[in-house]
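Team,

Forwarding the record for the chain on the shared tracking sheet. I've put the sequence and predicted structure together so nobody has to dig through attachments.
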Amino acid sequence: MATPSLNAIIEAMLFVADSPMTVDRLSELLPEYERAAIRIALQELRDDYQARHAGIHLVEVAGGWQLRTWPELMPYLSRLVKGKPPRFSPSALETLAIVAYRQPITRQEVEYLRGVDTGAVLKSLLEKRLIRILGKKDIPGRPIIYGTTREFLEIFNLNDLKGLPTLREMQALDEVPVFEVQEELPLKTDNP
């Protein structure tokens, strides 16, 4: 094989990477290439997959770039992969949402908002690597402070926390749409 192109090198790195690759990380791994050239190569790869309607696409997620399959292909891919997709209980989703929107947050603050004990749910979210311990709050008792992880961003297909829906967007989902009433036009007939 002749000397591989930068696009081919980056594509191979993204293919074997187990998490999104940032431009910083790619620049670190490829010091012989300019940062601007790496950015251009990423854009070209993304455009190429898009133009070919390929089975995978390149997305910017969790602050980096990752090759992903299209959601529409899931029925076919599930034939190959026998594992079940991760399921979240309503209490886990509620707790995760509280941590995501209110971070950094302590267990006591989460329990105050939920009104129930959240120890087991927080432990489960830690084990799934959706939240992490950020440190300890500088108050008496020094409670642990929680925040979300890069894996959280990956699973929910977010580039950063600014991608979370706002309260206004969530409230709009509950609103009943208002449609304009249009006047019915008479049908034109061929008979005079």
